[in-house]
Amino acid sequence: MKPNLIALIFISFIISACSSDIEQKTRYYLLDSPTSQSAKSTIKPVHSPLIIIRVAELPKYLTHASLVMQLSEHQLHYSHFHMWAEPLSHGLSSVIAKDLNQLNAQFQFSNYIENIENVNARVVVIHIDNFHISHQATALITGFYQVRSLSGDVETIPFDYRTKLEQDGYAHAVEKLRVSAAKLSADINQNLY
Amino acid sequence: MNNNPPSATVKPIKSISTVWFIPIIAIFIGCWMLYYQWSNQGPQIIIEFATAEGIEAGKTKIKSRNVDIGEVSKIELSRNSNSVFVTARIQKSAEHLLVENSQFWVVSPQISHSGVSGLSTLISGVYIEISPGDSHEEQFEYQALDSPPVTPLGTPGLHITLNSNDQFAYAEGDPIIYKGLTVGQFEDIYFNFDERIVYYNAFIKAPYHQLLTTNTKFWDVSGIQVDLNSDGISLKTGSFATVLTNGVTFGVPEGMENGEQIGERSYFDIYDSYQTADDERYRHAANFVILVSDSVRGLKTGAPVEYRGVQIGKVLSTNFAEFNSTTQLIEHDYKIPVLISIQPGRVGLPDNEAGVELMAKQNIHWIKQGLKAVLRTGNLLTGSLFVDLQHYDDAKTEEIVLFNNYPVIPTSSDELSQITAKAERFVDNLNKVPLTSLGENTNKLLLQVTQTATELQTVSQSLDKLINQVSQEQLSVELKQTLQGINNLTKDFSSGSKSYDDLRETLNTLTSTMNELKPLLNQLNNKPNSLIFNSGHTSEPSPKKHSGAN
């Protein structure tokens, strides 16, 4: 009995020595924060024309849940411990719709409509090429969006917005990515008529 | 004082002066030398040549086996200027060579198919060669040979005479071959104008002369012999020398007895080939005639007559008969008469009159039993024909027809001709068929068949519809049931349904679980033992603030 006890204590000691006190926890981020300013809903007049905000299929590297950081000209890094809490396409369309609702009182913007084929609404389709933290310490968003005018013409407008990081860390980077998305929303608002 | 001189006393000489001994001795020596010369010199001979070309008096030697035995002393033209008389002195030691049948000839450079000879005379000059004879009678006048003898006198062997009435042109020195060896030569040629035969004297040297027997046959092996016959193509040559010149060979035909030994100057015929020589061993034959209705082109004299593949005779001649009547017209077609011989020696019967008689009786008996002759193609390349005797059970006859006193063997066409004839008859019959009316009738029949087929098709379509209706009703019930089942299933999983929502939720849960597992999987991927030995340090890069930011 006594030797067995000693052996058990020894093994426990060894295992505990191998363990580490420091733990790296996985963190999840929302682009469309419910507590941000744009999250507040705005009341639009009745019969405001509806414009649907749709984000087209994202590039493959943005379909992962991990936050993406560019390490050099051609090297990307997928964070192991910093994840998006929701699909990025949904998050982007949601924040842009909310921003536009804040900026534009003329139209009503939405990123999701049930049975959209039966609704008579204009659609703004956003094609995202890049949405990550660059090696130059900027949060960038690039691509182009298509706006159908009243005459039926389709206008294609490119965009490229980069916001400098003012602090270290992923959390700050997400904030700046949100700022870049807001710049895009302002751009879209400029071209809606 | 006395003034008269004293008188001499004359005394007569009593003996001869010794000084005379010198000329006497000289004379004696001279006489002795003359006698010696006279007693030791050989006889003088006179040789008549056609020309004295190369011969010089006092220089040209007479030799025997390259040993000097004499010298030419004088050369004179004959009285009629047709020849030259060469006088020569022969050494005494060689006197015994001067006999009746000794031969003399001039040795000069010669080039022939057998080789080059006498080259030494280019330097030393020509000389006269002697071939001593075997006679015992002395002779001192000779007629020189125009060329060296083919066979030196005294050479052991046998002289024979060969006959040829064919277009051979053998020359002196042409070889006689035996199994590739040159065993003899042609010596000289004689043409008999009366008999129109060329006789060749030939010599077979020992010991090969022992090969010659009464059954020996000679045949020509000059050049390259190409033989195209019913057996095919054969190419034969003798020796290399005979390829360039002419030559003969000899032997006892296969299967024949050797025969008895022969003597000098035996006669032999030269045949044109071994086959011809072999055929000659059968001296007796029974002759028959075949009357051919087909073409005899390709049937040559000497073509084989076969019985079940075995040669039993040969064709002696084709179309040999003459018209008996010059005034009467031939009623039907003219059948070509072909004379054939059937040799009893070829089938094991005795090669004599008794064998011939037996052979004739046998064949006549078989003719009555249905024996017929057919001309067959022996060689497709050359088109040569041969006569084939076959039994036909349906061709018995009692009567034996004679043609020019020869029994006639009935003929039959060969299979190829029969097939050709049948084909021709078939084509004629085909031409007689009324194809036009047949065609019209066939058209009418086809129209009726088409109408019937159309009606049948209509009937079958009606039947199909009836059958389909029945089966469709059954099928539709089952289909309906199946579709209802599928419908119910899709309803359960359609959008908005509980199953759909559950499925979607499950997928979402799986997705989020995978997302949560991703870091762990990445960590394990980088450091598999990190589950146990986790240092706590992460090497993940982190965003840094911009250098221009405050």
Describe this protein's structure.
The complex is a heterodimer of chains A (193) and B (550). Chain A is α/β, with parallel strands linked by helices and 193 residues long. Helices cover 28% and strands 31% of the residues of chain A. In chain A, strand 3 (66-70) and strand 4 form a beta hairpin. In chain A, helix 2 packs across helix 3 (170-190). Chain A is elongated, with a radius of gyration of 23 Å. A nine-stranded mixed sheet of chain B has the order 25-26-19-22-21-20-24-23-27, covered by helices on one side. Chain B has a seven-stranded mixed sheet with strand order 5-8-2-3-4-1-9, with no helix packed on it. A seven-stranded mixed β-barrel of chain B has the order 10-13-12-11-17-14-18. Chain B is elongated, with a radius of gyration of 58 Å. The longest helix of chain B has 59 residues, at 435-493. The mean pLDDT of chain B is 82. In chain B, a hairpin with a 4-residue loop joins strand 12 and strand 13. Chain B contains eight helices and 27 strands. With 550 residues, chain B is α/β, with parallel strands linked by helices. The chains are: A alpha/beta (193), B alpha/beta (550). The A-B interface holds A 18-24, 26, 64-66, 69, 71, 77-81, 83, 133, 136-138, 164-170, 172-173 and B 515-516, 518-519, 522-523, 532-538, 540-550.
